[in-house]
Each structure stands twice: as structure tokens, then as C-alpha cells.
């Protein structure tokens, strides 16, 4: 079973665990609701839509309120470090948590005790702390955007805010940045780089590049990076090999954006709505190798 | 402020050297929110300070420190105490500090303008100056900042530095200031 772990931008949102349910643009976990317009709720909504389209069980959620102070993140880290080892999740997807190396490492200790070991996906703050902890290679998939890829490529930066200037945050530089991230062991086994071109990569190089449909206006829309992570998490849990899951997720996210016909003012909830239709189309394309470089 | 200080010309404070080094100290706080508040207090008081990344020995994951002229330690501490801010440590700089990114990427979508600072992007409707989207980032205040800022104009939106708590919030403040510079008369 897939577990999605992150925060909600409401300070009074309690720690909740359980299956997530989606009604329109509203997400509910254990009776606690929040809109899906951004952050971990957007990721969860995308994973739910994907799982339901594939006929898979709904993902489980671990959510808590945190508006950046770190109080909620700390409670969640603490809960995970005490209880994850007693669970049997097969895929864990970590998202918006305040980066804290010490707590990250305690959670990793708990994961080491899980049998079987789950697939590990990290995005957003948890990906930052995974890199900073020096344990990036323990993860199966990171899903950075181009700015975050530059951060992974900078062996000295503890946060994207400190990425050194000579490491250019430019889509054209992505292949070099991927190589550099692997050189310094700051990447997961696989990378799904979200950008003008979406790259699926591993230590041996770029495995796939997705360029179509090219929807320039997706970049400013908050949450479109979260949805792609939700889609790939649900595909991995459904048994797709990671490179294939990443390729299908990249195509699905772009197609959902295409169907939403977005402007830079579109909200991500309007795109999530089209995920089932987009996923069906991406799965039909899956039979051919279009998009694979090697 | 003491009575005589009202009439005393503000003493010249030494400039910070171009790169961190001898003569500089750092103020370490419990969390980024306090750093952002301290920066505001010290900047408004005219101190030549810089927000930087902490030395590796004290990095925890989402940190900022304030670099200041070490000879001003007592007066800086006093200014912070008046604002009820207590740094955890005040230490001399003995190695180069990490410098925040200072490059902005600007993308023009016709009716909309997007500014990216580090990993944070802010998009505004040029005609109305309404913030239509906030994207990027990975710290938990990003969804909160987006929730509070989207739908507001550049003039009415809360400042990320006032309601944000993390490095991503700080990066959004930089993007916001660059957007103001480009869009406001």
C-alpha cells in the first residue's frame, strides 16, 4: 500500500492517518478536510485519481498542519520514527516537511526495520533533507524541478536557496546537472526532473525525455510539480518499473495540463480533474517507445 | 534610546567586507522566522548586515544566519533585546559563509509576468498586478504563502517576510521585491 506523508497549510490541522477521500476539490482524511489546491493535498489528490483509474486501493495519508514554523513537521517526524517500522507500506512518498537532518535520520532508522523495505520517493522539503543527510542514494526516486536539480548538483548547498551561482538553473543544463548530482551521490536511484523537458534519469544517464505536449503555461501554476509526484507514486505502487512509471507520469501530467487549456492564472485543481483521461491516453502510448532515448 | 543618543550623530558602522571573513560575526537564531524578524529590526536601524547560510558545523536543514560587523556586537545585541530577540549564539566568522542566490529569472507570458528567485516562482497579472500563482519551493510555508497571497495585488498582499518562516519564504520575498520593482510605478 502507498502512504503519502506531508503537511497541510492550516496551523490547527491535527495529525491524521488513514485513507484519503476526494470530493470535488476537497480532500478528507479521518474527518479532517482541506482544499486540494496546492502542496501535499494536491499530490494526494493526483495519487488518488491515478490509483482509482488503475483500479488500485486508495493511498493512505499521514498529514499534519504546518505553516512553516516546523511544529507540525516535528510531530510527524516523531510519529513516523516511532511507528513506521510496525507498518507494511510498500511505497512511501515524502513531501512537504520542514527539513531537519536529525529527524530525517531517525525516520530512516525506522524504515530500515520495515520488512519488506518499501520503495522510497522524496519530493519538496523531504528531498532537500534527504540530500543534506548524505543518504540520497537510499531513495528510489527524487522528483526535482530544474532549480532543485541545480541544488542536488551542488555538493555544498544545504538548500536550493544556497545553490552556487556557477551552477546554472537552466533547462538546457539539465543533463550536466543530472550527471553532477550522481557524481557526488546526491541523487536517488532514479530522478524524474520536472521542467520544459521532463527527464527520467539514473546513474548511467538519461533514460527518457518527454517534451510533448509542450504547455509553457504549466510552469507558473503552483502544484503541477506536486501532481506529477502523486501520479508517479501511484504508478510505482501499482507495479510499474520506476523508469516506466516516471515516463507515464510525465506524459500524464502534460496531457492533463493540455486538456485543462491553462493560463498562468489557472489553479492546479482544474488540472487534477483531467488526470484520469490523461492517464488513459498515456497508458495507451505506453506500448510504444516514443520518448525513450535509450 | 538614551536621551543623549537623540542628539548624537549616528556613529558610522563599519561596512561588511565583500566576502565573509575577518571582522565579521554571525547571529544564530532558533528558527528562520526569528532571523527574518532580526534582519528587519537591524536593517531598519541601519546596520550593515547580510543574511547568509550558516557554517556547515551548525547547519540543521533550513537555516539562515545574520552576518554583522563583530566590533558592533554589544550594540547589535542591545537592538535585538529591545525587539525581544535573543540569538542562540553570537560567534566570529572563521570560514566563508554560503551566499544566498541572487539571480532572478524572469519569464514574460504576455498578460502575465513570472519571477523566479532560487526555487520560488511568483506570477502576476500585469494589468491588475494581482498575484495569480505561487509555485516551486519545498518548505511547509510555501502552500501557506500561496494560500495567503494568491488573489491579492502586489500592494495588498502580505509580505512573505512577515508571514513566511523558512528559506523558501525568504526566497519568495526576494521574488516579490523583484516583481514590485518591475511592476509598481
Structure, explained:
The complex is a heterodimer of chains A (294) and B (185). Chain A has a single domain (2-285), classed as UDP-N-acetylmuramoyl-L-alanine:D-glutamate ligase, CATH 3.40.1190.20. Chain A contains 10 helices and 11 strands. Chain A has helices at residues 39-54, 71-83, 101-112, 124-132, 146-153, 174-183, 224-237, 242-260, 268-272, 275-285, and strands at residues 2-8, 16-23, 26-29, 32-35, 60-65, 91-94, 119-122, 141-142, 190-193, 198-202, 205-210. In chain A, strands 4-3-2-5-1-6-7-8-9-10-11 form an 11-stranded mixed sheet, sandwiched between helices. In chain A, α1 packs across α10 (275-285). Chain B is of the alpha+beta class. Chain B folds into 2 domains: 9-92, Alpha-Beta Plaits (2-Layer Sandwich), CATH 3.30.70; 104-183, Enolase-like, domain 1, CATH 3.30.390. Chain B contains 5 helices and 8 strands. In chain B, β6 and β7 (120-125) form a beta hairpin. The longest helix of chain B is centred in the C-terminal third of the chain and has 17 residues, at 167-183. Chain B starts with 23 loop residues before the first strand and ends with a helix. The relative contact order of chain B is 0.15. The model of chain B is unreliable at 1-14 and 18-22 (pLDDT under 50). Chains A and B meet through α3, α4 and α5 of A and β6, β7, β8, α3 and α5 of B.
Amino acid at each position: 500500500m502507498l502512504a503519502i506523508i506531508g503537511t497541510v497549510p492550516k496551523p490547527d490541522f491535527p495529525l491524521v492517518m488513514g485513507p484519503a477521500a476526494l470530493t470535488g476539490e476537497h480532500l478528507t482524511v479521518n474527518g479532517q478536510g482541506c482544499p486540494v489546491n496546492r502542496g501535499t493535498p494536491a499530490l494526494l489528490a493526483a495519487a488518488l485519481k491515478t490509483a482509482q483509474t488503475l483500479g488500485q486501493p486508495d493511498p493512505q495519508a499521514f498529514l499534519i498542519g504546518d505553516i512553516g514554523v516546523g511544529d507540525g513537521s516535528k510531530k510527524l517526524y516523531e510519529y513516523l520514527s516511532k511507528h513506521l517500522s510496525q507498518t507494511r507500506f510498500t511505497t512511501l512518498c515524502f513531501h512537504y516537511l520542514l527539513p531537519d537532518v536529525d529527524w530525517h535520520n531517525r525516520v530512516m532508522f525506522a524504515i530500515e526495520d520495515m520488512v519488506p523495505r518499501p520503495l522510497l520517493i522524496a519530493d519538496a522539503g523531504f528531498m532537500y533533507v534527504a540530500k543534506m543527510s548524505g543518504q540520497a542514494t537510499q531513495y528510489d526516486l527524487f522528483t526535482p524541478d530544474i532549480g532543485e536539480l541545480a541544488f542536488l548538483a551542488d555538493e555544498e548547498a544545504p538548500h536550493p536557496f544556497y545553490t552556487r551561482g556557477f551552477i546554472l538553473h537552466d533547462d538546457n543544463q539539465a543533463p550536466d546537472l543530472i550527471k553532477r548530482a550522481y557524481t557526488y551521490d546526491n541523487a536517488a536511484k532514479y530522478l524524474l526532473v520536472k521542467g520544459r523537458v521532463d527527464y527520467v534519469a539514473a546513474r548511467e544517464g538519461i533514460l527518457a525525455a518527454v517534451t510533448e505536449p509542450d504547455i509553457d503555461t504549466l510552469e507558473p501554476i503552483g502544484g503541477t510539480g506536486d501532481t506529477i509526484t502523486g501520479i508517479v507514486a501511484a504508478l510505482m505502487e501499482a507495479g510499474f518499473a520506476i523508469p516506466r512509471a516516471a515516463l507515464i507520469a510525465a506524459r500524464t501530467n502534460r496531457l492533463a495540463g493540455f486538456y485543462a487549456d491553462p493560463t498562468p492564472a489557472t489553479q492546479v485543481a482544474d488540472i487534477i480533474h483531467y488526470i484520469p483521461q490523461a492517464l488513459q491516453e498515456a497508458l495507451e502510448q505506453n506500448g510504444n517507445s516514443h520518448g525513450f532515448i535509450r | 534610546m538614551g536621551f543623549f543618543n537623540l542628539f548624537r550623530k549616528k556613529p558610522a558602522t563599519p561596512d561588511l567586507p565583500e566576502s565573509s571573513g575577518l571582522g565579521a560575526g554571525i547571529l544564530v537564531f532558533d528558527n528562520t522566522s526569528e532571523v527574518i524578524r532580526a534582519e528587519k529590526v537591524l536593517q531598519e536601524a541601519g546596520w550593515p548586515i547580510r543574511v547568509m547560510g550558516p557554517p556547515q558545523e551548525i547547519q540543521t536543514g533550513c537555516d539562515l544566519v545574520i552576518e554583522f560587523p563583530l566590533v558592533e556586537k554589544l550594540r547589535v545585541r542591545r537592538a535585538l533585546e529591545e525587539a525581544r530577540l535573543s540569538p542562540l549564539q553570537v560567534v566570529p566568522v572563521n570560514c566563508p559563509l554560503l551566499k544566498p542566490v541572487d539571480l532572478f529569472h524572469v519569464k514574460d507570458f504576455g498578460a502575465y509576468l513570472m519571477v523566479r528567485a532560487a526555487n520560488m516562482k511568483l506570477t502576476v497579472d500585469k494589468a491588475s498586478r494581482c498575484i495569480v500563482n505561487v509555485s516551486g519551493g519545498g518548505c511547509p510555508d510555501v502552500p501557506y504563502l500561496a494560500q495567503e497571497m494568491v488573489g491579492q495585488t502586489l500592494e495588498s498582499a502580505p509580505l512573505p517576510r512577515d508571514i513566511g518562516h523558512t528559506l523558501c519564504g525568504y526566497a519568495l520575498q526576494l521574488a516579490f521585491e523583484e516583481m514590485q520593482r518591475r511592476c509598481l510605478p
